[in-house]
Amino acid sequence: MNRNEALRLLGLSADATSEEVKAAYRETAQILHPDRFASNKKLQERATEQFKNLQEAYEVLTSGKGSSARARGTVVSSAEEAEINARLAGISAARKQLLTQRDVALDERRSGFAMAGIGALVALAFGRKLGVLAVVASIGVACAVWGIVKVVSAQKTASILNDHLDELAAEKKQLLARLDEIG
User: Which of 14, 47, 72, 97 has the most CB atoms less than 10 A away?
Assistant: First the structure.
């Protein structure tokens, strides 16, 4: 990984200070840390891979291992172009994270539907009986209500994440149009 790739990964411009690098690393590390996804092995594996890339980027930027384009004697793009590319990389990283969060919310919604359905079936099957079966029916009603609450909550979360994804897509479109104007 070179310096420019590391800057893109952290969503930073070429003239980022060491304080900005540290702040971007800490912020991104909180988002990508694999421990946040301990309950979902698939997500945890994806987060682990992204977290390794994040650590490598931080090491490149703090140790000076990644040489800049100027030091290698290659043509350096305008500061504005570099900033746009960094923002595009940040959008890409944010999009991946939002998609992962949306997938989790949709999984929760499916679980809620299942719980509501099972709870409703149990309540209907045992609701007319007396005694111990009435307790089972009460538990079924509680499960159905919990499932409905879970569905509504997860749907709201997924909707908010979709709105954020739409905002990112619009910003990406604007940035790409600006890049076309520059280039």
Answer: 47
